[in-house]
Structures are given as structure tokens and as C-alpha cells.
User: Fold this.
Amino acid sequence: MRRLLQPDGSLVEGGCSRLGPEQLVEALRWMLLSRLVDARATALQRQGRFGTHSPVKGQEASVVGSAMALDPAVDWIAPSYRELPALVRHGYPLERILGRSMGRSPAATRIPDGVNVLPNQVALATQLQHAVGLAWGLRLQGRPGVVMAYFGEGAASEGDSHEAMNLAGVRRAPVVFLLMNNQWAISTSREVQSAGQFFRRAEGYGFAGVQVDGNDLLAVFEAATDAVARARAGEGPTLIECVTYRLSFHNTTDNPRRYLPPGWLERAECEDPIPRLEAHLAWLGLWDQGARAALEAEVAEEVEAAVQAALAMPPSRPEDLFDQVYALPPERVRRQRQELLQHVQEP
Amino acid sequence: MPEKLFRVALREALKEEMERDDRVFCIGEDIGLFGGSYRVTEGLLDQFGPMRVVDTPIAEEVIVGSAIGAAISGLRPVVEIMTINFSLLAYDQIVQNAAKIRYMFGGEVTVPLVVRLPGGAGHQLSSQHSHSFEALYAMIPGLLTVAPTTPEDAKGLLKAAIRTENPVMFLESMSLYNTRGEVPDDDYETPIGKAAVRRVGRDLTIVGVSRQAVLAGLAAQRLEDEDVDAEVIDLRSLRPIDWSTLIDSVQKTNRCLVVEEGWTTYGVGAEVAAGLQQRVFDDLDAPILRLGGAEVPMPYNRELERAAIPSVDDIVREALRVVGRRVAA
Assistant:
């Protein structure tokens, strides 16, 4: 397993960081923002003002380190449902992501045109197949983009992931398969999921597979930039396994206390990627309490503004029930929409 | 107008659309080098090359799944699934994504996808290669589902399917590939959502689904000998259904028989019969009857297979029942 950053914040012997001071602080900013959104969204969900939320908590280095290898102007993200900071960095405004989970108007919350993010998938691993076609479609059109597709070690058990990676290998599609091995698929442990190592599957598909410490921002960024460069050069896909830990619940409907072995969470918390990155910044002499407080305040203000903007978004309209079932609605759908509008307008 | 084979009409539609629009490409199993299991895509690889005529691994779900991704990227994929039976492996991508993804996200993505689905029995391909699963697709909002029965419509509907922004399930009856018919020379589309009146009559309406519309036409000729004048409607579009053509016909004939090759329980005929009784109950002089395949997995044995799908004899018999003639058991 590739690791560059020690838990104490120092680099491993001979290790070299590809991230400069500004990028390190940018990464920490995304990670802190993500952690704060998790807390805020969970609180809102408990108040009945937010839908189901899947926290990123514990996996921020994997999500942010991989996303920072992408150029939002040309590259695409095919997300699962636990990659919020990657989407925001890529240009999907935070208030829209939050507004969507609050059930606000589809028009107000949609991904803006020109933002290269696919709608998030809660059907496991299906997005990997879209990613292959999208990547291949970009290449067919002579466009330079690379697609980063996120999935978990649980989704890796779905047949979809096999078919997607096999086709990607055959067609040398410019895709990076970012497997987030957070050890748990709800209550199903990594051991129950597979007897083998996930990153080794790449060899069977004829492309590179690497395993990195997913709580090590520097190692994730290094693997992701190498994979993106390979894809961009026409050298095909890469499978990156980020070994990380889910430090929260699967989502707000879950209660991990029912199944986590005693002591597991406490041990995993020692690997928390945020203190590790802060320790690295301190090791570099770039960090102190004052800098942290300033960054935390800035992020808190940004999250609060996004929450308020989302709460202020218009609700769904009755006609949203029928709009967008079809790009070109058949007559019957148009009529049903019209009847609904007449019904709601009657006194 | 020149006469052409059904399969050639389909091929011409693909060829002309690929010439007209660089975004159109074909993807499927054995469609390039081999020319397709039914020779529909023959010659396309030579003309358009392997980037636009894509032979894939044997993996139906990712064929459709990657086509959805390619459609989102701005292309217009035409998928060939070797038989509609194998499309069940891709049912998740078709139903969970192609049909829903636009709606789920407020119109963010458009999926202009065509899935060609050869199906139907009659060739001793047995139960895992020859079924009529029309209803599985026709029931899904977000999809359009069509089933042409003439070479002219095969070409015109395939062009319309490729040009629309909606995902289209394109059902091809394998038994029709070698049939001939006139095909216009000009560039035309057959509109999705319109049924075709194949024969005008006054005594009953026979609505045929896919190849059964052809058999219904043959049955109508036989019914002339019984002094029954049948109107034959080729449903063509299973979603949306052209209710106005059906209503006009049944208001005139007051009697209706629906014929499909698939199972009648929860089938297309059930939908047509229920929709008609709701709309024109007072015009009906008799219950609407449904005729479909035997409710068994498709048998391999030639005689049993023949017995499992409606024949012209069966349609004549049921039509006579609808008009109240005594029919020998």
C-alpha cells in the first residue's frame, strides 16, 4: 500500500509531495468544509428538514485528493453518493447540492450547464458503466476529458463493476475507477465482500491497479494524477483502491453501534485524515492555531450561507410531477400535466 | 416504390442516419465483423469503421450502460441486443437509468438512446432466446416503445427513434426480417405514437401487436369468407398508445379483439382492452377479447412452439367469437 504521509505529519523516508503549500491548504479547506456539511446535514435531517445523508466523514482525503487531480474544465466526475467535496470543487454549487437533498425545486437545484458532473447514483456501480461510455464518447468526439468514477468496495461486488472495467480495458477508455474501500457496506464488512484484494482485479482487465492509503492526501493525489495522466495520454484506465475508514454511519438511516466490533471505531479514528494533514502543515511550518481558527471560521460562514440559500430556494411545483419524464413529452403526459394544473388551480 | 427486405430497410435507416449525423453510432455483440446476428448491420463496419460500429464483450448491461454514458456525452447510440431475452441483463440500466435519470435530476441529462430488440418465436430457438417481452418495456414511463411490422415502418420508425431525444425501445420481430415491402426512396420518418389502419372494415376491430398485426391482416382475408368485414389496426407504437385511432375504429365497429404474441396476463392486450372499455364502454356491443401466447416458457419442439403462439386460425376463431358467431371448439 502506497503511503507518503506518516500519522505524525512527516513524510515517509524518500517521500515527495506533489502538492505545494497553497494546494495543501486548499485541500484542507475542502476537507473541513465536507466535515462541517456532514454535521450540519445530519442535524438538519434529524430536524426533518433534510433527506437521507451519506457522510463523507473519514474519507475526505480520498475524495479531495482524487478530485484535485482533475481539471474541471475538461474532466468529468461520475459520482456515487459520498463525494460531496469533489462535486463542489468541480463546480456544482454547495447550495444546490443541499437544496436537492431538501427537496427544493428541480430547476433551482440542478447541476448547472457546463459543470462536468453526472447526477449522483444511489444504484450501486451503475455509474461505472456510464463513465465508460462517457469517456469513450468524449474520445470519439475528439474531446480531451478524463472521467473519474467513484464507487465503494461494496459496489465492487456488483456485476456492473466487472462489466464496466472489462469494457473500459478493451476500449482503453480514459477512465479512472476510484474504489473507496471504507471497510463497511452498511453492516457488511470488507471480509464478507471479497476474499481477494480489490486493486488486483485491474490486472485481470489489462490495466494498472494501485492501492493507496486513502487517509493520506499526498498518496491519493499522486496516484490520481498519475492515473489521469495515463488516461489523458490514451494509455487507458486505472483502478485506484483507497484504503480508508467510514468514521460515521452509512447514511442517516443507519446505526453502526448495532454491528461495529468493539474498539473498531476508536482505532479507525486514529487514522482520521484531517488531523494528519494538519500535522503535515505544522511539520512544514505552515500551520498554527490561528491559521486553523481563521480557516474554520471562513468555512463555517460558507456552509451557513449555502444552507440558508438552500432553505430559501423555491419548493417543487405541482407540474414538476410530470416535467422531465420525457425530453419531448408525448401527448398523454402533456394532458396529465394540464389536468393536474387545472385541478390545483380550482378554488 | 422499390420493394425491400425488412432487414435491409433497417440497415438503410442506420446507414443514412450515420451518414447524416456523426453523433450516431452502433454498439452491440457481433454487429461489426459478423454484420449482426440478423445481418442488419452488415457493411456498416466497412463504411464507418470500428469507432462507430463497436463490437463489444458479451455483457449486455454495460452495452446499454455505456451507451447511456455516451448519450449523455452528446452522442446518439443505437444498441443492438442479440435477442430481447438478453436485454433482461440490461433491464436495470434501461429501467433504472435510461428511463429515469432525466426525471430524477430535473432534466439535467438527456438520453437519446435506441435499443434494438429482436424478439419473438417461430424459429425453434427455445425459451431462452425467443420471447415477446413487449409489455416489460411498454409499461415503463420515460421510455418510448415501438414495434414496426412493415419494411417501410421499420425504416421510418428507426429514423424517428434515432432522431428523438427520448430513449426508445425498438422491438423487431425476428420472423419479419425476411419479409418484403415497399420502401419510399426519400428521407422520411414514421411518427412514434401513431397506429396504422391496415385494412378498413365495419364488423370488428382487430388490433395487432408486432408480427401479430401481419397475421391479423391474413385473418381478415379469411374472415371475408365468413362474411365478416374486419378492420385491422397495427398498433406500431406501444408507448405511447394511439388511443384516438383505436377509439375511432371501435366507435365504428363496436367490437374489438387484441392480438399479441406475448403472454396475455398483464400484457399489451390487457392495457389496450382496459383503456378502450374506459373510453368507449357505451359503444361496445361485446366484451373486448384478448388473444396471446400460451402461458408457458417458449417450447423448443416445433409443433409445440407453433401451438404456443397465436396463428391465423386462432385469430379467425377469436374474431368470430367477438362478432357472436358460434365457433366449433
About this structure: Chain B touches chain A through 48 residues (CB under 8 Å). Residues 6-20 of chain B form the longest helix (15 residues).
